[in-house]
Amino acid sequence: MLEVNELKVAYGQSRVIHGVSFTVRQNETLAIMGRNGMGKTTLFKSLIGALPNSDGSINLNDKDLTACESHQRVSEGIAYVPQGRMIFPNLTVEENIRTGMAVRGTKRIPEDIYALFPVLFEMRRRKGGNLSGGQQQQLAIARALVTDPKVLLLDEPTEGIQPSIIKDIAKVLNEIRKLRKIAIVVSEQVLSFTMEVADRLIVMEKGQFIHEDLKENVDTAQISRYLSV
């Protein structure tokens, strides 16, 4: 579904992403793991078009999106939940969700959204800024899902969230794959969460991929060493 080939990204003269390649299939979840500052967020921003790539290609269902603007990539089926969630604090939960619906031109919130996130239905009239961090993360994912994406990019979804809510988010991501024809790419540092949601795991260090494994083959002690400071 998503194919990235030899992607390179630079800030001015400083190259941050050094020719990474990967694919993600429909109904697969890929986790890209690494410590802070290793290039995960830069990679995700490049995939959504917020940062230009200096070389390489990004294809979605065999369509080349490399030269497309962010809004075009969203229209083609890439949704992005950034690190820190970035919801609209002064809009209600329902209004936040509706901001994502303009892409598809629909007016009715899909029924599966509130089924996946019942807490959002309960709080649909509440301002986004009054939600907890975990609830805001669920809202950000819901807002991305109403664009009806083929690929969902989640950057550090567990950051600043209490363990019980992390488990809820893991369950939701696994449920989304059952309900929709979607591929999920998640950047993460929490290995326990990754093992709950990912089919495949890639470790990133200094803008390069240094290790890849299917979940069933993962040596958690080895991955923990990669993630330790």
What does this 3D model show about the protein?
- The model has no long low-confidence stretch (mean pLDDT 93).
- The protein has helices spanning 40-48, 70-76, 93-99, 111-116, 118-122, 133-145, 163-179, 191-197, 220-227; strands spanning 2-11, 14-24, 29-33, 55-60, 63-64, 78-81, 151-155, 183-188, 200-205, 208-214.
- The two termini are 34 Å apart.
- Helix 3 runs parallel beside helix 6 (133-145).
- The protein has a domain at 2-84 and 151-227: P-loop containing nucleotide triphosphate hydrolases (Rossmann fold), CATH 3.40.50.
- The strands form two sheets. The chain has a six-stranded mixed beta sheet with strand order 6-7-8-3-9-10, sandwiched between helices. A four-stranded antiparallel beta sheet has the order 2-1-4-5, covered by helices on one side.
- The chain is of the alpha/beta class and 229 residues long.
Main features:
229 residues; alpha/beta; six-stranded mixed β-sheet; four-stranded antiparallel β-sheet
In short:
With 229 residues, the chain is α/β, with parallel strands linked by helices. 34% of the residues lie in helices and 27% in strands. The mean pLDDT is 93.
